[in-house]
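Fold it.
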Amino acid sequence: MHPEVQREAPGMCPECGMALIPSPEKTGHNGHAEKKELNKHAGHSTEMFLRKFWVSLAATIPILAYSELPDLFFGWQAPQFLGYQYMMLAFGSFVFFYGGSVFLRGAFRELRVKLPGMMTLIALAVTAAYLWSVYAVFVAEHPLFWELGTLITIMLLGHWLEMKAVQGARGALQELAKLLPDTAEVIQKDKSKSKTETKIVPVAELQVGDIVLVKPGGKIPADGRVLEGQSDLNESIVTGESRLVLKKPGDEVIAGTVNGDGSLKVEVAKIGEDTFLAGVMRLAREAAASKSRLQLLSDRAALYLTVIAVVAGIITLAAWLATGAETAFAVARLVAVLVIACPHALGLAVPLVASISTNMAASSGFLVKQRLALEAARKVDIVLFDKTGTLTKGEFSVVGVSDSETLRLAASVNVYSEHPIASAVVRKAREENLQVGKAVEFQRVPGVGVKAKIEGKEVFVGHKGGNDIVVEVDGKAIGAISVADTVRPESKEAVDALHEQGITVAMITGDAEKVAKEVAEYLGIDEYFARVLPGQKAEKVKELQSRGLKVAMVGDGVNDAPALSQADLGVAIGAGTNAAIESAGIILVKNDPRDIPKIIRLSQMTFAKMIQNLFWATGYNIVALPLAAGVLITRGIVLEPALAAVLMSASTVIVAVNALLLRREKL
């Protein structure tokens, strides 16, 4: 239940009292032992609680049969026999030591690390009930065996229900480790036979540069690049996008994604900790270890509630004994107070919601690196987008041309050039099915353009003032071509969605004023900053913050890292640089700006659920604690320990179920 807890030696989890599980090791390539990634929840099994529940229930039935309850409710008594009290003592002792052992060990662990909490309170309650009952058997007083048996049994059932809910909430990120196939089919060249053959090897033995064959329906074993073949891949597990993605030679593929109907030959580019999935799991662990402000508040409140419960229990016991009440009654009130005040629901209220929201983010295509970042998203007033690579694709396209002959000649000159603008011109000509001529005597004109002879004429393509590309034939201009960084089609939707949420949208770019203005007007952006040097981006963020605005910065480059760190919320494009990703609190797996409104929406929903859970987890204590102490006993209202256990467990389950309802929400 608490994967962040790690110890060098066997022992108990200080948070929940359950046994820590040995971390299995595997032998690495160098012969040294390496830690193997594992599910630390494995030993904290729901089956253990369920098994203890059924056994404890079976032992509690004879205790109930010989208690006063059958006579009180049904007018029936179990047959009395000499020494039946000792039978109840035997069954009660079994339930206490067998069913209650997990709570006793948990309390011991909590007290050892000086963090008394839920387990301490439960252990105090059942120990008080048991010790009094043992004493009562030998001095002919009224024991509390049926209260003890039902209390432990119900607590076990409550823990089982809670753990079922918790496991369901935390399943998504844990599944990441299962995405990789166990083996890969490596293509090797048989030197003696001068032909290739395939060999099945464990994924852990893959090396950078290996060529692997991925058959139809198989999983990509490592991050790499397609060398041969063409196929549709299902990348939903890493991008959240259900639509299949066509992959062809030169395209990158991600480990764990599922191949479609075609066969692919993939060159391995990244292995081990360098792969995308390893990065996702690393970020997931960082998110799990980080805490939101509300979680820190609930942790502190849980500690205070533990202290209040112990003090209130002692006062309750002393007060009833002072009024002359029976010791059994006073002890029962003590037990009820300790049980009802258990901060279990309070301790679960925030972490479970945080876990679910982290999973929802991952399945929607963005990764929460820091939970404080997700919490900050709901307060954002303005989103500042870096233009290139975020709102635009970072690649040029032809947006205007004088005529087809101008385009044909420009493409003929640039057909062998690798310049992004040249590639855009050639691509446009091919889209128009234009016949590209053969270029001879190709020359670069530094800082201006290129020229070559096409069909016996000297053709120049380049800039001579302004942003348009000029095309000249034998020194005479025949036309111009306009190129622009392609705006992502989804950028307009993202801006509109943010406006619907009442959030201002701004853009920052190093491009000229004219280019920035055109993009801003097209997308409906409220404010833009043009000709901003890389080192000035953080200053622009500070400028917005000086207006009293909470700023979310979205970027993808090395020069965006300072601005991402300066912003109240830093969001990095997943395809960007490591520097940008390290500086951000949230990472977009897809280069899709429409995820920004989703982040804000998830932040708002997460905060609302946390508040709801905190209200319930503390509210029921305020009402039930006085009832457990017996303040309304004169009106016939008293909260027995078993009912207190039911309410405490019910509160925990309600908090868990309320958190799970978050998964039904749409972003």
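Residues 595-629 form the longest helix (35 residues).
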